[in-house]
């Protein structure tokens, strides 16, 4: 992935849904006229009239019950439908909100920061944005009202502040009379990776500064000493990875008994990485009366089960875009099918296109075997622009929120299409446009069908060479790692914890 000064021009086309609906309506009316003109017997004609009258009465009653409301303050049509069980579904453009009483006026989308009614010091962190993002616009009214919420949104859509600002408000309301020193955290935010945890921490530290809300980031690969000292001093928000948080709980230096606002960010990835048992254990340590928030790019069955177990029976669900696997539409996806041996030359050509240089390119790298301090330094150099090119493994696939990343190059296609979606999501963030070049080889043909679906959903060009591999979506399984999202039997042996030298540091 790289940064550069020149803008990348991106064009995007979307299907004309109005025209399609019009054609369907014409076809329906044509069929209806045809049926009415058919020759029928008097008896059959009388029966048809009676049936039509009954259908009309039934339709009137149904429409009276499920009345559609067209809002005048939105660009596109907004519908509110009663599902018959007390839940309502609200659809607005590409945002779908489902939940009990979702149609109440108090849960109306927040169009501007002024409409939110939040204190100026809380909104201080939003001064660089014109209006709330779609996920913020829809999630804030529910979260500020204390509702449990499930958020499905693409990477780079403003999810952190979507749950971060309500978390700060929760702390300000509950922590008015708390002592400053030694106070227990009121909020917990779990993340699957160090990079994502640090990213959330950076946002929350900035957002909480004006409000006096303090956060700490807890993750492995670094000394526990400073983290323990900060915990003893007293903090409001705990942000971290499951492994390190569980370690500190077991050591008796971290108590989550007062944590009444709990967030699981990238919940799908957390379970995919094998953290389910640890996550369940940590959630069991939090306050029995809590507000639960789960954010995820996709919604697999395992995450659904976790939500059913730990959330309110009637959580609100906000889906921005698609609940299925979908890429950020602000990213132009260019997929090139080529031979493995041709990748090096093509990579050099792309680098010369985006980073003109005569004697190589100044770059940094990030990978799992690199020490945490080295990874942090590499990220810092990349963010500053000192090294405009980063070479990374999938440890950088999530959690890197760097607005100026304009190009992502996938030298190798990832093990799963989900990881592909996250990789290209390092660009095109916060409404900006981006470009992603992806090399696809014969060895990746098993994922061709899923990739074609992702490209089509985003209105991107599908190469003919990619179509030759077929469009069948196969079982998610890798020759190297086996099946993904594999069900684990209840009597399966428990995992053995592996400790690294860095975990024993004081």
TrEMBL record:
PROSITE patterns: DEAD_ATP_HELICASE, HELICASE_ATP_BIND_1, HELICASE_CTER, Q_MOTIF. Residues 140-317 form the Helicase ATP-binding domain. A motif (Q motif) lies at residues 111-137. This is RNA helicase. Gene3D superfamilies: P-loop containing nucleotide triphosphate hydrolases. Pfam families: DEAD (PF00270), Helicase_C (PF00271). Residues 11-21 have a biased composition (Polar residues). The keyword Protein transport does not apply. It comes from Lupinus angustifolius.
């Amino acid at each position: 992935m790289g940064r550069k000064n020149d803008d990348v021009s991106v064009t995007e086309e979307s299907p004309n849904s109005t025209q399609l609906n019009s054609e369907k309506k014409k076809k329906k009316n044509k069929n209806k006229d045809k049926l009415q003109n058919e020759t029928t017997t008097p008896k059959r004609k009388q029966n048809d009239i009676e049936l039509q009258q009954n259908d009309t009465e039934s339709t009137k009653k149904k429409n009276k019950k499920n009345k559609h409301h067209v809002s005048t303050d939105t660009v596109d049509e907004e519908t509110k439908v009663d599902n018959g069980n007390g839940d309502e579904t609200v659809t607005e453009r590409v945002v779908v909100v489902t939940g009990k009483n979702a149609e109440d006026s108090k849960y109306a989308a927040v169009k501007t920061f002024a409409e939110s009614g939040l204190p100026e010091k809380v909104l201080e962190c939003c001064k660089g944005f014109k209006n709330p993002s779609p996920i913020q616009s829809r999630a804030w009214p529910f979260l500020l009202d204390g509702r449990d919420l499930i958020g499905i949104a693409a990477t780079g859509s403003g999810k952190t502040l979507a749950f971060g600002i309500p978390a700060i408000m929760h702390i300000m309301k509950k922590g008015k009379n708390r002592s400053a020193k030694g106070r227990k955290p009121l909020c917990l935010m779990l993340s699957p990776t160090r990079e994502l945890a640090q990213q959330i921490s950076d946002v929350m530290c900035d957002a909480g500064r004006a409000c006096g809300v303090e956060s700490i980031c807890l993750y492995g690969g670094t000394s526990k000493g400073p983290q323990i000292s900060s915990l003893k001093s007293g903090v409001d928000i705990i942000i971290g990875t499951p492994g390190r948080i569980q370690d500190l709980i077991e050591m008796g230096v971290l108590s989550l008994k007062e944590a009444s606002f709990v967030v699981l960010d990238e919940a799908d990835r957390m379970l995919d990485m094998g953290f389910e048992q640890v996550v369940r254990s940590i959630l069991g340590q939090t306050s029995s009366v809590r507000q639960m928030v789960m954010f995820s790019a996709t919604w697999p069955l395992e995450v659904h089960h976790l939500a059913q177990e730990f959330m309110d029976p009637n959580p609100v669900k906000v889906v921005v875009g698609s609940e299925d696997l979908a890429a950020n539409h602000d990213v132009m996806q260019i997929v090139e099918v080529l031979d493995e041996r041709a990748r090096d030359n093509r990579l050099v050509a792309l680098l010369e296109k985006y980073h003109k240089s005569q004697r190589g390119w100044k770059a940094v790298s990030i990978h799992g075997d690199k020490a945490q301090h080295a990874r942090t330094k590499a990220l810092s150099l990349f963010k500053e622009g000192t090294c405009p090119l980063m070479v990374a493994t999938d440890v950088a696939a999530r959690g890197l929120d760097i607005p100026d990343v304009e190009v992502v190059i996938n030298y190798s296609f990832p093990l799963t299409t989900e990881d592909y979606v996250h990789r290209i999501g390092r660009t095109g963030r916060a409404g900006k446009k981006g470009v992603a070049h992806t090399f696809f080889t014969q060895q990746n043909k098993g994922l061709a069908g899923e990739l074609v679906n992702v490209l089509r959903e985003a209105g991107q060009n599908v190469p003919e060479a990619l179509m030759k591999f077929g469009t069948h979506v196969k079982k998610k399984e890798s020759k190297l790692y086996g099946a993904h999202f594999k069900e684990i039997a209840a009597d399966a042996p428990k995992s053995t914890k592996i400790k690294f030298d860095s975990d024993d540091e004081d």
